[in-house]
From TrEMBL:
InterPro entries per UniProt: OxRdtase_Mopterin-bd_dom, OxRdtase_Mopterin-bd_sf
Stretches assigned to the Oxidoreductase molybdopterin-binding domain: 21-166
Annotated protein name in UniProt: Oxidoreductase, molybdopterin binding protein
Organism of this sequence: Microseira wollei NIES-4236
Taxonomic lineage from the root: Bacteria, Bacillati, Cyanobacteriota, Cyanophyceae, Oscillatoriophycideae
One Pfam assignment: Oxidored_molyb
Length: 187
């Protein structure tokens, strides 16, 4: 097995689509992205994201349901570049990712604000399809894919950890694949 595939995972050549609920359909013209909470409130458009430095990324993608897709090709904006446009209170320690369709997931500032994390709008050279989170999703390669929220439309900065949808329903608070942080053990 590849040293890039975490314990308990298998490699897939496809890119399975797993979604809880219906797939939101949001046009680029109507899409907006907000920051709030312990951050200066601000709203971004898709054009705002496209005006930021664009990068190509190749990252492995690990799903909690045990599949891993290696060498996924994305284009988007580094989290570190985006954060240059956001004023965050130093008390912020966690973020709640909010998405069209009502999905939420939590992430610590330490796991979020990393050089290898990015907001993706392109997958394998094509606009990110809705079923994979388009028009924009977060990609956090070092955590299981549910932390890479699809249909992202906002970040709420918090001074303590709050649990998102899957975390409230038995998934691990962090979701690190190499430690097999799949489930919380609470249920």
């Amino acid at each position: 097995m590849s040293d890039r595939i975490p314990p308990g995972q298998y490699e897939t050549k496809g890119f399975p689509v797993l979604t809880y609920g219906e797939t939101p359909k949001v046009s680029i013209e109507n899409w907006e992205f907000r920051v709030w909470g312990l951050a200066q409130p601000k709203t971004f458009t898709f054009a705002d994201f496209m005006a930021m430095p664009q990068h190509e990324f190749t990252a492995d993608f690990h799903c909690v349901t045990r599949w891993s897709r290696l060498d996924v090709k994305w284009t988007g904006v580094k989290v570190t570049d985006f954060m240059q446009h956001v004023e965050v209170d130093p008390k912020a320690s966690h973020i709640m990712e909010h998405c069209y369709g009502g999905y939420t997931t939590n992430i610590s500032m330490a796991d979020f604000w990393r050089e290898e994390n990015f907001f993706a709008h392109t997958l394998f050279g094509e606009p990110l399809p809705a079923e994979h989170g388009g028009p924009l999703r977060l990609v956090v390669p070092h955590l299981y894919a549910w932390k890479s929220a699809k249909w992202l439309n906002g970040l709420e900065f918090l001074d303590q950890e709050e649990l998102g949808f899957w975390e409230r329903n038995g998934y691990h608070r962090r979701g690190e694949p190499w430690a097999e942080e799949r489930y919380s053990g609470l249920f």
